[in-house]
Design brief:
Helix content is about 70%, strand content about 0%.
Length: about 70
C-alpha cells in the first residue's frame, strides 16, 4: 500500500496527459502554485501539508504493525 500511495500523491503529469486538466489534484495544485501562479508560499504550505499527511499515514501504518483490516 505504501509503495503506491506516496507516488500517487505527488503525481501531476499523468492526469495532464490522459484527461487534460479536468480535475484538480494535489500535485496539480502544487505545480500550478510554483509555475503559473508564482505563489510560492502557498505552494510550499500545500507541499508541507501533503508531506505531513503522508508521514502521519506512515506512522499510523507502522503503529498498527502494517496489518490491513480484512472483512
Amino acid at each position: 500500500m505504501t509503495l503506491t500511495f506516496i507516488p500517487a500523491m505527488g503525481m501531476f503529469l499523468v492526469p495532464d496527459f490522459l484527461g487534460g486538466a479536468k480535475y484538480m489534484l494535489v500535485g496539480n495544485l502544487i505545480q500550478q502554485q510554483f509555475g503559473t501562479s508564482r505563489d510560492w508560499p502557498f505552494g510550499a504550505a500545500v507541499s508541507l501539508g501533503l508531506m505531513l499527511l503522508t508521514f502521519i499515514g506512515i506512522w499510523v501504518l507502522r503503529k498498527t504493525g502494517g496489518k490491513e483490516a480484512v472483512h
